[in-house]
């Protein structure tokens, strides 16, 4: 073989070896078709719970499968609605490695950190106050002109995730909506509970009540001159306080009552017309029949009271309403 022929063969072999080496390297060393580029934003506004890579950066690559994989990588948790946090490049690189991404083939450009801001809906203190007022006024049985709502105490504002906002207000069980009461407000976003706050509100309801003008002794018969009607906050009035003087006039006190005290139902009673042991006439009457017999009172009773009477003949006890000092009636 001539010298020129040997040089030509040598060149052919070198080219062949290079071609084979290039083929082997491309088959064994490259996991993706091309290098991806991640351009990190300066700021990202997010309205979800997780920080995804594609929400804080722009991802470029010829490999669509790689792009989809990178997009769905979770970098971390979003801050609370209305707040922000910084995500640095080191955190992004760590998350890429945890997801088996070859960092050597990824080009990350842009700022060293991105500020992530969580979008949200703000409910101001004024809006919370209106929510409470609307709730209270729709549940109070009194005229609105007699009601004064004050002292609403709550947080300054509530920040919720974006979405359709609703709320549920829960008062204490069996509340009478008088004085200071606590209320809980459960805020929901798209029907899902998100935040609960507690609010206290003071409610004043002014109404007429009956008070004594002077001290009243035990078993004192009550007259109009003993009483007066004043306007008071019902939160300061006992639940059984009397609001109409006609209820008390003609009855007697059960015990001594101080002057200027709110008169209560359990402090008065009908003046007894019948005493225990009195002989009375028992009247049992229907539309077609009237029967009378004698009985003996087993207890005292005033007008309209229902007391136990013993039938003199049968010795059986029955209950009858006091009609006057000598008569009781059996109700059919």
TrEMBL record:
GO process annotations (BP): bacterial-type flagellum assembly
Pfam families named among the record's database cross-references: ChapFlgA (PF13144)
GO CC entries: periplasmic space
This protein's record includes keyword Signal: yes
Protein name from the UniProt record: SAF domain-containing protein
InterPro entries (alphabetical): Flagellar_FlgA (IPR039246), SAF (IPR013974), SAF_FlgA (IPR017585)
Major location category of this protein: periplasm
Species whose genome carries this gene: uncultured Desulfobacterium sp
Localisation: Periplasm
Lineage: Bacteria, Pseudomonadati, Thermodesulfobacteriota, Desulfobacteria, Desulfobacterales
UniProt keyword terms in alphabetical order: Periplasm, Signal
Domain SAF: 207-269
């Amino acid at each position: 073989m001539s010298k020129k022929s040997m040089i030509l063969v040598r060149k052919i072999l070198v080219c062949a070896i290079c071609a084979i080496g290039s083929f082997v390297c491309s088959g064994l060393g490259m996991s993706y078709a091309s290098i991806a580029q991640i351009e990190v934003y300066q700021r990202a506004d997010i309205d979800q719970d997780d920080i995804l890579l594609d929400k804080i950066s722009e991802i470029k690559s010829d490999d669509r499968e790689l792009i989809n994989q990178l997009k769905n990588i979770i970098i971390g948790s979003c801050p609370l609605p209305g707040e922000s946090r910084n995500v640095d490049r080191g955190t992004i690189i760590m998350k890429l490695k945890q997801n088996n991404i070859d960092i050597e083939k990824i080009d990350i450009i842009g700022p060293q950190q991105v500020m992530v801001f969580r979008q949200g809906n703000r409910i101001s203190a004024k809006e919370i106050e209106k929510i409470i007022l609307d709730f209270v006024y729709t549940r109070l049985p009194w005229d609105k002109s007699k009601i004064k709502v004050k002292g609403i105490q709550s947080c300054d504002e509530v920040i919720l995730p974006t979405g359709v906002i609703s709320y549920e207000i829960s008062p204490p069980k069996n509340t009478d909506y008088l004085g200071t009461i606590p209320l809980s407000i459960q805020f929901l976003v798209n029907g899902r509970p998100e935040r609960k706050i507690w609010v206290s509100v003071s409610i004043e309801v002014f109404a007429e009540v009956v008070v004594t003008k002077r001290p009243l002794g035990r078993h004192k018969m009550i007259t109009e001159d003993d009483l007066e009607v004043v306007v008071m906050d019902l939160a300061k009035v006992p639940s059984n306080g009397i609001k109409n003087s006609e209820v008390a006039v003609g009855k007697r006190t059960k015990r001594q009552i101080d002057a200027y005290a709110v008169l209560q139902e359990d402090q008065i009673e009908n003046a007894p017309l019948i005493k225990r042991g009195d002989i009375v006439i028992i009247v049992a009457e229907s539309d077609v029949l009237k029967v009378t017999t004698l009985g003996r009172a087993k207890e005292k009773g005033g007008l309209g009271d229902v007391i136990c009477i013993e039938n003199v003949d049968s010795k059986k006890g029955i209950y009858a309403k006091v009609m006057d000092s000598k008569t009781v009636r059996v109700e059919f």
